[in-house]
Amino acid sequence: MIDTVLFDMGGTLEDIWVDDESRHSSIQGVLDILRAHGIDLNMDFETTAQSINAGWERYGAYRDPRQRELKPEEIWGSFVLTDFGLNEDSVRPYAEELAHMWEITHYHRTLRPHVKEMLEGLKGLGMKLGVISNTASLYQVFDVLKDYGIRDYFQDVTLSSVTGYRKPDPNIFLVSLHQVQSDPASCAYVGDTLSRDVIGPIRMGFGATFHIDSYLTKLKDTNVPADVKPTYSVKDIYEVYTILKDAR
């Protein structure tokens, strides 16, 4: 029987999307933070944006095949800002500031409808609840959960930036399972990507997987084998509660 429900963050508990406005704002945010710390890149905006985006591509090429997450000073100092002559030591004092800003600015974020009602329902069933999120910031997920007013529902929040492992690597799931003290067979995982949020829990022997579409689904789910299927596909996240309630 399922007694624990673990959630992805971006695309699952919250809707997230990227557009030209958020892309521009995040680049400007980098410039503002650097300038506040006495660094003026002396480069036009478009060239700066191209270099920063190229830096993220370098990091993605390192990160994705390894399913690893580096610390903010390594990400920004060894990948994203290297074209500007910066390094880990120089960005270390404000690396988390950059990481946090990027996560909340590059992506528009809003809490999905009915999340609070779903969490309240699961709490009423006696479920243990947690979050497992891939993120390049150490604190952003905690802060956003608090801003949404739902932080206190979760016994555990496990982040790739803290563990060093990204979904679907088994180690990030193992950390969360140890934290909530649950057996995989008694856990359900809820996420928006087959490549991370279904494949990972299936490999770990989770009792159920839930999939909900988001802006990220098609972007992240290229080359997923056709036989990878969630236990449940839902349109409204509140269905997680109703399905688990009916299964009791």
Automatic annotation (TrEMBL):
| Keywords, comma-separated and alphabetical | Hydrolase, Magnesium, Metal-binding
What biological processes does GO assign it?
Answer: small molecule metabolic process
Organism from which the protein derives: Dysosmobacter segnis
Instruction: List, alphabetically, the Gene3D superfamilies matched.
Output: HAD superfamily/HAD-like (3.40.50.1000), Haloacid dehalogenase hydrolase-like domain (1.20.120.710)
**Listed GO MF terms:** metal ion binding; phosphatase activity
> Which protein is depicted?
HAD family hydrolase
Q: Name the coenzymes or cofactors required.
A: Mg(2+)
